[in-house]
Amino acid sequence: MSLDKATVAKVANLARIKVEEKDLDHLADELNNILGWIEQLGEVDTDDVEPMTSVADMQMRWRADQVTDGGYAGEVVVNAPSGEDGFFSVPKVIE
């Protein structure tokens, strides 16, 4: 894949990046180099490599899914201008 000057100008426009006309050729060369490196990555054999989310082998810590605080909704809404059954009462905003 190769980018030409017009494509680079279009991408810059879509990204809302102002690029001077004189810089388009140089930018196209740089982007083509980057795309070349990406194409090289596609040549690497990764069939025996496990997918990973980090370079360090880590285990996520899990905790029990249990409530450790709460259960006092009445105390929370006691100073509310309007409350009902432990919930804040607000005016309807969507018809």
UniProtKB/TrEMBL annotation:
Keywords: ATP-binding, Ligase, Nucleotide-binding, Protein biosynthesis. The keyword Ligase applies. Pfam families: GatC. It catalyses: L-aspartyl-tRNA(Asn) + L-glutamine + ATP + H2O = L-asparaginyl-tRNA(Asn) + L-glutamate + ADP + phosphate + 2 H(+); L-glutamyl-tRNA(Gln) + L-glutamine + ATP + H2O = L-glutaminyl-tRNA(Gln) + L-glutamate + ADP + phosphate + H(+). Coiled coil: none annotated. It comes from the Bacteria. Its EC number is 6.3.5.-. Belongs to the GatC family. Heterotrimer of A, B and C subunits. Allows the formation of correctly charged Asn-tRNA(Asn) or Gln-tRNA(Gln) through the transamidation of misacylated Asp-tRNA(Asn) or Glu-tRNA(Gln) in organisms which lack either or both of asparaginyl-tRNA or glutaminyl-tRNA synthetases. The reaction takes place in the presence of glutamine and ATP through an activated phospho-Asp-tRNA(Asn) or phospho-Glu-tRNA(Gln). This is Aspartyl/glutamyl-tRNA(Asn/Gln) amidotransferase subunit C.
